[in-house]
Amino acid sequence: xxxxxxxxxxxDLVARxxxxxxQLLEExxxxxxxxxxxxxxxxxxxxxxxxxxxxxxxLNEKDYKSVVDDLRLANGALFSIxxxxxxxxxxxxxxxxxxxxxxxxxxxxxxxxxxxxxxxDIYTPDKVKEAVQVFGDDxxxxxxxxxxxxxxxxxYVGGNVQAVQPPVHYDYVAYRNTPAxxxxxxxxxxxxxxxxxxxxxxxxxxxxELTVRAARSRQANVLxxxxxxxxxxxxxxxxxxxxxxxAIIRRYPTGMAALSLLPLAMRMAGPREALxxxxxxxxxxxxxxxxxxxxxxxxKNSAGKDFYGPYDAQYLVEKYKDEIDIEVVPFQQVxxxxxxxxxxxxxxxxxxxxTLDISGTELRRRLRTGAHIPEWFSYPEVVxxxxxxxxxxxxxxxxxxxxxxxxxxxxxxxxALQVALNQQGGRSISLxxxxxxxxxxxxxxxxxxxxxxxxxxxxxxxxxxxTRAGAGVIVAPIAPYEEARQQARQEVEKxxxxxxxxxxxxxxxxxxxxxxGVYERAKKGEIKGFTGIDDPYEVPKHAELTxxxxxxxxxxxxxxxxxxxxxxxxxxDV
Length: 574
Description:
Layout: H1 13-17, H2 21-28, E1 33-35, H3 38-49, E2 57-58, H4 61-70, E3 85-87, H5 89-95, E4 102-106, E5 113-118, E6 121-123, H6 127-135, H7 143-150, E7 155-163, H8 179-189, E8 194-197, H9 205-218, E9 221-224, H10 238-249, E10 257-259, H11 271-283, E11 288-291, H12 312-319, H13 321-324, E12 327-330, E13 334-337, E14 342-345, H14 360-369, H15 380-389, E15 398-403, H16 410-424, E16 429-433, H17 434-440, H18 449-468, E17 472-476, H19 482-493, E18 497-503, H20 507-513, H21 518-523, E19 545-547, H22 554-567
Parallel strand pairs: 1-4, 8-9, 8-11, 9-10, 11-12, 15-17, 15-18, 16-17, 18-19
Antiparallel strand pairs: 2-7, 3-7, 4-5, 5-7, 6-7, 13-14
Helix pairs in contact: 10-15, 11-12, 16-22, 18-19
Binding site for ATP: 198-201, 292-295, 334
Protein name: Sulfate adenylyltransferase
Active site: 199-201
């Protein structure tokens, strides 16, 4: 029999509200609407499916404060992560939001109504306190703290919801199970003891070994339950990961394991998140839950230290294990013994035995460079899937972003670099000069800071898409502002390499090279907001290369850029 839901009753709002779905759908079309963010959509999907039982909506102020302070709802039920619907003052004014008003919550992907919220209250959260209490620190190095301060709006809306319809998914539908569906599946197969394994990463042989050991030691079956909502920035995409899970589950003994996807927006909150994960898995019917070293940890803080202790998550869940009624299975680190071709727990390695391991950093290096990944570490079919989605750098795209004053010769460098890279071969090369982008994509924009930032944002987007397709991209705008350049870097680095080249031609030399007389016109006031005259150029803080055409030839500069790309592995296989 599957585990009892948290709070005693599975809050399956979709099933509860199914008899009045047509009325709710009709009403949703007449109400003001809030279009959800991606995180809010993930949260709402798990609210209405019962994954967040005993919640029936977004936290009101009383529940929010209680969860932040005491890891409990106001009624005393254990719940460790605040689930909030954030809105702005503009939203409140435009939609006339107020207590007792009903509003439709819509899917941002297709504008479909998902639920109707009856507002209980609107309140201002203490974000610093929330960060310190929930995440342990108000440090922007923590991705959830950064999201809280930079993305979450200034007000929270609390209230229960009625389910109109669950969000529609078009990928891996067969693996997307609600708590009720998983419970029915366990009952059909007579799985009475289920060990849930949470992951946001690809699985390899060691993961298979530890989950099999956990299942056998508890006389249980295994639920591979990966997160496919929002995870840590930089994680491997869920499409690749699910293909890996499909491959590796065939390596389990027949009938031992099942795969089900969880549409969760992770917060990387370490101990509190582990407790939250345990509650969610209990709601889905699991009786046991594997918690690893530094479970849901975000890595290092701004001082270079871990946000959480390696076993803090295990300690916190163990503290509440009787209350949540799910058994914690500590993650046993396993090590490969080449002489016996097996994985064993690290604390069971015989004295003097030879061991082998590959760290996550080393695995990423081997994927990046195309170096060999041995079969003892991961199955060949898993490695093939990872290489397909994450080819070595020699097959990846990149962007070379040249920035500098007008008439700094960055355009000459860009054109020469295009010729050199075309001669190199191996990928298509796209050249995006400042005047080209202005004419084709941004002809309506002027030269205010805001409009310049919009122009660079568009340039970053186009460069990222070309980079994603495996092209080499050369861009040469003035791009005078550091923040806009950094945003372009972040956009492109999701898809490939980004190399910022500061063309550090002195302003006096650029003026001397300006055959069009643009600087002179700016000096006379005929052109306003001209970089270097009455608008600043912010010197790049994070350039991969700084060049100066006043003392180096264009050919020398191009050679330096090509060497940089070669050193980073973008030419030829290793």
